[in-house]
Amino acid sequence: MRALIIDDSRSMRMILGKTLKELGVESIQAANGLLGLEALHGPEHVDLVMVDWHMPEMDGYEFVCAARAEPALANLPIVMVTSEAETDLIQKALDAGASEFVMKPFTADAIRMKLEMLGLELGGTP
User: Which helix (H) or strand (E) holds 101?
Assistant: First the structure.
């Protein structure tokens, strides 16, 4: 399984990438939503997107809206990984098509739980 990690913070992309690797998930990365959409149209197959909310160029909410507007991406699991805690904004993202939410800071167990809730098969150590 391969995930696309979209976050403008290089260190957060590295942390999330390491966490996913421990769960048996390969990853590719993008620094904002526009680059994330380009990656989804690239040669590498992606089974999951982990996207931050606040980014330049195209934020996570705009990314979710753009991805869900494409029929080929309608069923792609998209998890918002953000420090945003306002319930109205969380509901807005879910209404736009986000599959799940993970709050920063997160643990590997929290990521595992959300991905398992989405029915994704994980490798790695429990």
Answer: strand 100-103
